[in-house]
Write a structure and sequence with these properties.
With about 325 residues, the protein is an alpha/beta fold. Helices cover about 25% and strands about 20% of the residues. The protein has helices spanning about 20-35, 55-65, 120-125, 140, 160-165, 190-200, 210-220, 285-300; strands at about 5-15, 40-45, 45-55, 75-80, 90-95, 115, 130-135, 145, 180-185, 205-210, 225-230, 230, 240, 250, 255-260.
Length: about 325
């Protein structure tokens, strides 16, 4: 692929029983590499999750490879485009869970909340009897969310059960259980979070089908109740309505999404630090980051991509 190619991105997940998931790793990695596709795919007993990007023909070849397995024949995906490569490596990883919540008795294949189409989501948001919860991490919510949604202020998804435990109106023994609606980036975290609420005895539990990405794809800006941009776990950093690439960049030290205003901070140094992490890095670490940034700029001047050393990152959903 040339540096200036147009890249098709496919976000996908499916909860399905895959007892032989470890055997799928090597052939799936080989298929992706053969078609110049990069990104991350997670395999576990409970299914598959991930995002990949590459040439259009390559992405469709990988999707066809996956769907050739009868268990993944109806594997859905959400497509978007990027002018720059969203990923620099291809990794197929084996995991205990395709989205980590650490509630082993939970099975989204058996119990899950009621799906709500993007076209019907606004009505749910407007219902005063519904508690709408953003199940994403703090750095994601920081750049955008739905108007009126509750922000749990969690650093990672595994903290959600404890946060729910602390909410009086959401406790299992609450006198009157409210209606609960949950949403996340692509829908996968809500499969588990709504399953958790159902397991806790909540009857009226809903989640946004296809997640924020599907909502932004389908709902026109003039009808939208989304405010800001949506964080994505790749080099696009954020997307807006129509899934166009947003206006945020990534701090290469702590991976926090940065707006143009954030980059005006005296603590922001391109590739080295931002207001969120400037006091968490030693001088030696900052020098290594500065050297990496110099190598990135040299590579870009040659029209190449600099992969470089692996940097600290958030855990993808």
């Amino acid at each position: 692929m040339s540096f200036n190619a147009l890249y098709l991105t496919a976000a996908l997940y499916k909860f399905v029983d895959l007892p032989d998931f470890a055997d799928l790793q090597a052939p799936l990695q080989a298929c992706c590499e053969a078609h110049d596709v990069k990104g991350t795919l997670l395999l576990a007993h409970e299914g598959i999750n991930g995002t990949i990007a590459g040439p259009e023909a390559g992405i469709h070849a990988v999707l066809a490879f996956l769907r050739a397995d009868p268990r993944l024949a109806n594997l859905p995906h959400k497509a978007s485009w990027s002018p720059k490569p969203p990923f620099t490596r291809m990794k197929v990883k084996l995991k205990k869970e395709i989205v980590t919540l650490r509630v082993p008795e939970l099975d989204p294949n058996k119990t899950v909340g009621q799906y709500v189409k993007p076209a019907d989501w606004n009505a749910l948001l407007a219902d005063p009897d519904v508690v709408v919860i953003d199940t994403r991490n703090d750095y994601e919510v920081a750049i955008g969310s739905f108007k009126g949604a509750v922000n749990p202020n969690i650093k990672n998804f595994v903290q959600l059960p404890a946060w729910l435990d602390a909410q009086e109106n959401l406790k299992t023994d609450a006198a009157k259980k409210p209606k609960v609606a949950m949403f996340c980036t692509g829908g996968i975290r809500c499969e588990k979070s709504t399953a958790l609420m159902k397991m806790r005895g909540f009857d009226d539990v809903y989640h946004l089908e296809g997640g924020i990405l599907k909502y932004l794809e389908e709902i026109p800006p003039e009808q939208s109740l989304w405010q800001g941009e949506c964080f994505v776990f790749d080099e696009r950093v954020s997307v807006g309505h129509g899934l166009g690439v947003g206006g945020h960049d990534l701090c290469r030290s702590c991976r926090w999404p940065l707006s143009a205003e954030d980059k005006k901070s005296p603590h922001y140094v391109l590739g080295v630090s931002c207001a969120h992490c400037h006091d968490q890095r030693t001088p030696e670490q900052k020098e290594k980051l500065a050297e990496r940034q110099r190598q990135v700029e040299l590579a870009e001047a040659r029209g190449e991509l600099h992969v470089g050393a692996k940097m600290p990152s958030h855990n993808a959903p």
